[in-house]
Amino acid sequence: MQLVVGRIGRPHGVRGEVTVEVRTDDPDLRFAVGASVATDPPGRGPVVVEGRRWHKGMLLLSLEGVHDRDAAEELRGTMLVIDSAEVEPLADPDEFHDHELIGLAVETVSGEAVGEVTDVLHHGQDLLVVRRSGRDEALIPFVKALVPVVDLQAGRLVVDPPEGLL
Predict the structure, then answer these.
(1) Total-model pTM
(2) Distance between CA atoms of 33 and 78, rounded to whole angstroms?
(3) pLDDT, tens only, 78-89
(4) Which of 15, 40, 112, 165 is deepest in the core (most CB within 10 A)?
């Protein structure tokens, strides 16, 4: 499975630098000088990082073969991706990467099927977005009290929702 770690934005200056909307918690690793990063669409890459710097909170990358504003503009909107197998597992057994949760079947503690995790939102509190058959999506706070079991091997998680949540 491919994971998006960044999105190329507008060019910066006239020498081919591009702005990057960072979507990884480890930009120093993902965008290290010399790193080759796959792209979506695949035909635009892979891109090789020639240089990087931060400017006013924005990551700027110089890419091999991109030396003017026009070439940088052609890359605008390109997603920078990695294979999920490249992501190191987290040391804490109660911590999960989003891609590990998406696709898990959701059931209640009594065994009733609820739906499937389709997204994880990070708005102050982590929320699981659960698609339910024939009903609106449910937003379930991702806390131990409400999600006591996450079984990646079995492809499921168990929720113990308070009255009215579902």
Answers:
(1) 0.61
(2) 19
(3) 999 988 767 666
(4) 40
